[in-house]
Specification:
alpha/beta; Aspartate Aminotransferase, domain 2; three-stranded antiparallel β-sheet
Length: about 400
């Protein structure tokens, strides 16, 4: 295969990172002018600003009124581990994993908390465990959307309404881009740095009435670090869900996320965000269908992520290459794209199969994705020609 000419059109915004993701179109530092910098996060004004953020979150994400929303430290990782450290330990646990972060929750449950009668249900990248066989008399921990594999659960129908255990859902690449059935999810966590293009470090935890009831009726059998504590003297610490936080937050990050939520409202809210992610992903899927050298990491189209679209070389794309060359070719392609300034942070996750990942959440513009795709064809042809001489 010979090299081809460089495409004439370049993405206006070449940022396709899966987190922190790109800012929404129209974002500027002027949106942060009212940030309460140099003020205590405990001040009346700062608490009110954080409560405003939580109110906007409830409105845009369509969180039920009887669910609690809190800002917590440690991004989505902190939020998930906070839920596990507080809620697990009273009954057997099943942890579902099909990508890198889900496997971290397996490690937490089996090796750190060492929950008795804990079971890991692990599937390969691009696949899901058998959802129909999950025992919901147990507590269940799972990731809704696999950021590093591009596979997601298709819906919440597999979760029964009469479950006995609690469901803890890591929804960090799904929130604001996919429908989350809050009646099926007792804990939902995510970080701002994903679909909303926010700054890293802060996480969100959403608790159902069932989760609150368990928090106030159960004491975990292990020590709970201060940063994870949701209860005091057997009662929920309500301030966490009223604009107060466990530790110091960045008021600049708070203001930045408020700007993103306001943008989302103007766009049309959750439905518009989901539609935009779907449209973005479809642009990539259509290109995959007509491109013989690449394939989606997820064979089953029904469980493909509309945010983290993961790809690898197809058998056709590997023809004539050694195994080592097939592993190195995507890396060379991505280096070429970065050198041209047309696509940044497109590599597969370090523990995923070698390949590419295009973030398609709502802050990404479809026109930028459409402009990127011919550059991927160019990079493939160029890198392959280099390798084969």
């Amino acid at each position: 295969m010979t090299t081809i000419e460089k495409p004439a059109t370049r993405p206006e915004n070449p940022r396709f990172s899966p987190g922190p993701t790109t800012k929404f179109k129209g974002w500027s530092f002027d949106l942060l002018n009212n940030a309460l910098l140099g003020r205590s996060h405990r001040s009346k004004e700062a608490v009110a600003r954080m409560q405003h953020l939580l109110d906007l979150t409830r409105e845009v994400l369509q969180v039920p009124d009887d669910h609690l929303i809190g800002i917590v430290p440690g991004s989505d990782t902190g939020a998930v581990e906070m839920a596990m450290w507080n809620l697990l330990g009273s009954r057997p646990v099943e942890v579902l994993a099909w990508e890198s972060f889900g496997k971290m929750w397996v490690t937490d449950v089996l090796e750190q908390l060492k929950v008795e009668q804990a079971e890991a249900r692990v599937a390969d990248f691009g696949e899901l465990p058998d959802l129909a066989s999950v025992d919901f008399s147990h507590d269940v921990v799972f990731t809704w959307n696999g950021t590093t594999s591009g596979a997601r659960v298709p819906n919440g129908d597999w979760i029964p309404d009469d479950r006995q255990g609690v469901t803890i859902c890591d929804a960090t690449s799904a929130a604001f881009a996919q429908e989350l059935p809050f009646d099926k999810l007792d804990v939902v966590t995510y970080s701002w740095q994903k679909v909303m293009g926010g700054e890293a470090q802060h996480g969100i935890i959403i608790l159902s009435p069932r989760a609150v009831e368990k928090l106030e009726s159960f004491t975990p059998p292990w020590p709970v670090p201060k940063l994870f504590r949701l209860t005091k003297d057997g009662k929920l610490i309500k301030g966490i869900f009223e604009g107060q936080t466990i530790n110091t937050v960045s008021m600049m990050a708070i203001e930045d996320h408020i700007a993103a939520l306001n943008w989302a409202k103007e766009l049309g809210g959750l439905d518009a965000l989901i539609a935009k992610a779907n449209d973005n992903a479809q642009t990539v899927w259509d290109w995959e269908a007509r491109t013989d050298w690449v394939e989606n990491l997820v064979a089953d189209a029904a469980i493909r992520s509309n945010t983290s679209v993961c790809m690898r070389l197809s058998d056709k794309g590997k023809e004539g290459l050694t195994e080592e060359q097939a592993t190195e070719l995507p890396k060379r392609m991505l280096a070429l794209l970065a050198e041209e300034g047309v696509g940044y942070d497109l590599s597969a996750y370090r523990t995923a199969p070698p390949g590419f990942r295009i973030w398609c959440g709502g802050t990404v513009e479809k026109s930028d994705i459409a402009a990127l795709l011919p550059w991927l064809d160019w990079a493939y042809a160029t890198a392959r020609a280099e390798m084969l001489g």
